[in-house]
Amino acid sequence: MDKDLPSWYHPSKYHRSLGNDMVQCLVCERRCILQSGRIGVCWNHMNIGGGLYNIAYGFLSALESRPIEIKPLFHYWPNSTALTFSGWGCNFRCPWCQNYLLSQSRPSIRYSLEKTPMELVFEALRRGDNGLCASFNEPTIHAEYIIDVARIAKEKGLYFTLVTNGYMTLGVLREMVDVGIDGYSIDIKGCPDSCRRFLGIDPYYVFRNARYIIDLGGHVEMVYLIVTNANDYDECIDWVIDNHIHYLGEDIPLHINKYYPAYRYNEPPTSMRKLLEVYNRARKAGIRYVYIGNVLDERYQDTYCPRCGKLLVKRRGYRVVYWAIDDNSRCPRCGFKIPIKGHYIVK
Ligand code: SF4
Questions:
Q1: Is the peptide bond before 72 cis (omega within 30 degrees of 0)?
Q2: Residue 345's CB: how many other CB atoms inside 10 A?
Q3: Between the chain's N and C termini, which has fewer beta carbons within 10 Å?
Q4: Which of 12, 41, 88, 202 to mutate to test the pocket of ligand 1 (most atoms within 8 A of CB)?
């Protein structure tokens, strides 16, 4: 570490040198090529003299204890709370971003809370949270920090989850899972056509990464925000559902979420009719745990046994108000195994 650099500039090993002080960042699949002095798309990684630095290490834009169900993660440590934190910036530019004040802003020392990884973990313990969650902005772009936090969290017996667009490279993802980040709420932004048009990204990497996490023993739930006139047409819906089944299988939950106008996008909010259409198509395709989120009607947040139809979990206001799955994660009526990572937390 260069002693002339600010303390929040943290060297990043996730890069390769291209010669002449040029580097390629290998944190996410944007794989930015940076000349010395240039910052990547995410505003968090900078080439300084031919080395890559995370220039906002430990800068937090928000910090709050939140229910795990709000992520949404419905099959991971149900009814627990996670100390949820975020940094600044993003590697995507979704025109409808619901968190744009944090995610479409450059890191700011003036408006940041600074926490070392140790301080953050002790804050979670002090509040009585069961784990930590990196959310609100894209966690991948401060991977160096969250990996350090997760290492300590694991030692202290806390879980660690991400709410992510799932666009990290396999090298970073492998390290995340290895240090104990084992819960992932992953946004699938749409099909290749809509993702190219609105975001300039390839959603194939998202399914590749979700599959990789599952193969390494991690837990995944997918979130599909249905955005009016962006990713809500038949071919796009079919592509998402077909690839969910193909890459992830029928046991991985799919959350179908309602979009509201925000940031630079003003199309009308998703209709309940459209959400139900996608819900029914996903169920028909064989996905066993399909939920509808961001709506007032909370019936579609409940879990039913796929075999006998018994109501197993009722969720209201992002809390579990009824729990009938037995201690072996089975339906008490027919014995069907329900995929749950961790166990139900009585609060
Ligand atoms: S983390 Fe940032 S700098 Fe690195 S490849 Fe992704 S967008 Fe580019």
A1: yes
A2: 14
A3: N
A4: 41
Q: Render pLDDT for 89-138 as a digit per residue (tens, 0 to 9).
A: 999 999 999 999 999 999 988 899 999 999 999 999 999 999 999 999 99
Threshold 0.85, pTM exceeds? yes
| Residue 1 pLDDT greater than 60, yes or no | no
Task: Tell whether the model's pLDDT for residue 4 goes beyond 90.
Answer: no
Question: How many angstroms separate the alpha carbon of residue 281 from the centre of ligand 1?
Answer: 35
179 Cα to the center of ligand 1, angstroms = 21
Residue 267 has pLDDT above 90, yes or no: yes
pLDDT of 324 above 60: yes
Q: Where do we find the tokens 């419905």?
A: 74
Question: In which residue ranges of the chain is CATH 3.20.20.70 found?
Answer: 59-297
The first and second tokens of residue 44, run together, are: 């968090």
Q: Tokens 């169900």 belong to which residue?
A: 69
Closest CA to 205 of 188, 217, 218: 188
pLDDT tens, position by position, 50-74: 999 999 999 999 999 999 999 999 9
> Counting beta carbons within 10 angstroms of the beta carbon of residue 24, is it exposed (0 to 12), middle (13 to 18) or buried (19 or more)?
middle
- Rounded Cα distance between 17 and 274, Å, is 48
Q: Ligand 1 atom 2: the closest Cα is on which residue?
A: 42
Q: Match domain 59-297 to its CATH number in 3.40.50.720, 3.20.20.70, 3.40.50.2300, 3.30.420.40.
A: 3.20.20.70
In sign, the C-alpha dihedral spanning 89, 92, 93, 98 is negative
pLDDT at position 3: 67
Give the amino acid at 33.
Answer: I
For residue 200, give the amino acid letter. Answer: G
Q: Supply the pLDDT for residue 2.
A: 66
Q: How far apart are CA 141 and CA 25, in angstroms?
A: 11
